[in-house]
Amino acid sequence: MLNDLKAQPKDKILMLMEMFKEDPREVKVDLGVGVYKTPEGVTPIMRAIKTAEKQLWEVETTKSYTGLAGDPGFTGGMRDLVLGDAVPADRVAAAATPGGTGAVRQAFDLARMANPDVTVWVSQPTWPNHTSILKHMGVPMREYRYFDDATCAVDFDGMMSDLQDVAKGDVVLLHGCCHNPTGANLTLPEFQRVAELLNDKGALPMVDIAYQGFGDGLDADAAGVRHIVSNCPEALVAASCSKNFGIYRERAGVLMAVQEDASKTPVAQGTLNHINRQNFSFPPDHGARLVSMILADDALRADWMAELEDMRTGMLTLREQLAEELRRLTGSDRFGFIAQHRGMFSRLGATTAQVDEMREKHGIYMVGDSRINVAGLNKDTVPLLARAMVDVGV
Ligand code: PMP
């Protein structure tokens, strides 16, 4: 029977990583995989995580199971971090999940339990895992226009026009900040208009927030999702700790279900627990516990916020340097969008052929849709990328 399995398509980013490793050239730049890197190319363990791990080793007395929804200190801490005081805590059911991906997957499961005929709307483009998970689950999906290839900014008119077709009971998936893969984001007034539209349609907003603190700051990055939860009767929010706490392999994330009426929160909570139970039982605890320790301790939290802010401003500086270098080389401002984009990614607007040429001729590796990981650059490689872009005619 297992002989009947069909080969799955290879992951494009992992294939790119392989190619990069095998490239013998001395000068080569990896802008593919989506992990934060220092200018030296290292993905560091954040200082506060190291300190919390040391403390945890001292005080942890058991590795017995947590609750099905994980540690309430974690889910409560994350609720406050992401949602602030935008919604009363008693309207929010929350469960720890294996990373943000786990939260996304559980959210789709929950939506389908609530409405077996649900259609999930995703931005075109979106993080490829959104679409592949929906396909894997057999959940119907529709796309709304999002990115304007000509300006490399959000095509908000196209988005609003496509969302006119949203039906009651559909789910509309939004990126909370730092859109992956484009780097182009909704402004707060645009979030407000989307919220109004979804309320008019009777659709459920789902916000995936995987890069809080990587764009304009922890609170600014959460402004959109906070507006949604305070203005829409119900919402799903999937948050990841992988990037902003740098704990990718620990798999820490949270799914929150915001209920219209607090009396219904226990049912939502029970459903989240149930879905965890069916899929993996208890969620991983180590990363989640480190996060809850950091969020609950003033000194650890301040140190974490300071390091996160350094990471954020470092990426912003790289954006500005790249935009400036391109301005100098082309004498035009048409790459100004790179400094406007936020987060770890930018879609540069290069064709597949240009992406291939930049890799083959210049040793610069990026995803085929011309998404770059800005954190893969440093001040020495910014000019290399700029020159390659101009050379291949982007
Ligand atoms: N959503 C988006 C849009 C992402 O880019 C990512 C990370 N690549 C995630 C969710 C979840 O990441 P993880 O499962 O590693 O926490």
TrEMBL record:
UniProt record, GO biological process: L-phenylalanine biosynthetic process from chorismate via phenylpyruvate
Assigned EC number: 2.6.1.-
Superkingdom of the source species: Bacteria
Keywords annotated in UniProt: Aminotransferase, Pyridoxal phosphate, Transferase
Secretion signal, residue range per the UniProt entry: none
GO molecular function, one term: L-aspartate:2-oxoglutarate aminotransferase activity
Cofactor: pyridoxal 5'-phosphate
Domain Aminotransferase class I/classII large, chain residue ranges per copy: 28-388
Family the UniProt entry places it in: Belongs to the class-I pyridoxal-phosphate-dependent aminotransferase family.
Subunit structure comment from the entry: Homodimer.
This protein's name: Aminotransferase
Species whose genome carries this gene: Psychromarinibacter sediminicola
